[in-house]
Design goal:
T-fold; binds adenosine-5'-diphosphate; binds magnesium ion
Length: about 325
């Protein structure tokens, strides 16, 4: 990855990275639209160079495409192939889902199983399977053990262009990868419409291409995970993105312990040790899945993993609020 000027602001205490690109964009020159999809707010920003009507039309098409992806990949949508896979054991032949499951299982292999699209029984048991936290109590050890016994990415069997359940209990959950895919699809739609610069923001993930107007880089802030404010600033002047997985998006606390929606497929419990992991990568699918996986892997394994990968940079905030990065100057860091 090309090096861009970059320094992490070693601000106070805890940091978790969340993107608020709109904070930094020059007023009035950027067309901004939002839509609620995938349990989160999606925002598209485009510097106005094509004219308002053409730009708006392109943005609408991008949102519609992401809405299509949402419907298709949402395991809670009864019309989705993923729902039928989970409830009726029906193999998935949809080529789009097949390719994303394939990409996801590649990441499972690379991350030693930290990324696992079969973790659904666990997130269900914990009550994190949709945006409403269904329960606010720690499940019994027996319930967790029971759910865990149904989890394992190798239970997704890929052959003849189809995804088969390799046993009777496996359930698919693409929540750790579908958002990145949707964002990538939106980029394609915008480019096809002649848009040469845009920022797409969805929850803790941002993707940019082109410039923020007048040749200026897109600026993205990394939010503190425990309070208002930002811990780092990034500038992107090439096509790239960043995805943050944190313990602050969906969680509850019990007896002083924070339980959140990223589960460790080895233990069945929410992954411990970090507040957030941000992955900077040109490919939004990789950024999304790897931020989840590296969160599970913990600081040392995540940093070692990132240092072997030329296609990603990683910024980590540990459970004491200390910030670490895989390189001294991760892509985009501001001076
Ligand atoms: P968010 O969706 O809040 O941006 P992530 O991208 O980190 O956060 O994805 C978390 C989601 O991924 C969970 O809500 C769940 O659907 C799924 N998930 C949880 N643990 C894992 C895991 N170990 N591997 C893959 N997916 C997971
Ligand atoms: Mg993710």
């Amino acid at each position: 990855m090309k090096k861009i000027v970059f320094t992490i602001i070693l601000a106070a205490a805890a940091a978790v990275l969340v993107y608020r690109g709109e904070l930094f964009t020059p007023k009035g020159k950027i067309i901004k639209r939002t839509r609620f999809l995938m349990d989160t707010v999606f925002t598209i920003q485009v510097p106005n160079s094509l004219g308002l009507r053409r730009t708006e039309a392109a943005m609408e098409r991008a949102f519609d495409r992401m809405s299509e992806v949402d419907k298709k990949f949402n395991v809670l949508n009864q019309d989705s192939p993923a729902y039928r896979f989970n409830s009726e054991r029906q193999p998935i032949s949809d080529p789009e889902i097949y390719s994303l499951v394939k990409a996801g299982t590649d990441i499972s292999r690379e991350t030693g199983g930290a990324f696992d699209m079969t973790a659904f029984p666990l997130t269900e048991t914990w009550g994190f399977f949709n945006h409403e936290i269904a329960t606010r109590a720690v499940p019994s050890a027996g319930a967790i053990k029971g759910a865990l016994s149904a989890v394992g990415w190798k239970r997704l069997s890929l052959r003849d262009g189809k995804v088969f359940p390799a046993d009777a209990r496996v359930k698919l959950d693409m929540g750790g990868i579908a958002k990145g895919y949707a964002i990538g699809e939106a980029v394609k739609v915008l480019k096809e419409a002649g848009i040469t610069s845009a920022l797409i923001l969805a929850g803790g993930q941002v993707q940019v291409f082109g410039s923020a107007g007048e040749g200026k880089p897109w600026r993205v802030g990394v939010r503190n995970p425990r309070r208002e404010g930002y811990m780092a600033g990034l500038q992107f002047s090439e096509e790239t993105g960043i995805s943050t997985s944190g313990d602050y998006e969906r969680f509850f606390e019990a007896d002083g312990v924070r339980y959140h929606h990223i589960v460790d497929p080895r233990t069945g419990y929410p992954a411990r040790g970090l507040m957030s992991v941000s992955v900077i990568a040109p490919d939004p699918v990789k950024a999304d899945a790897l931020s989840t996986a590296l969160f599970v892997m913990g600081r040392d394994r995540a940093l070692a993993f990132a240092r072997k990968r030329p296609d990603i940079d990683v910024i980590i905030v540990d459970d004491k609020g200390k910030i670490f990065s895989s390189r001294e100057n991760p892509a985009g860091a501001e001076r």
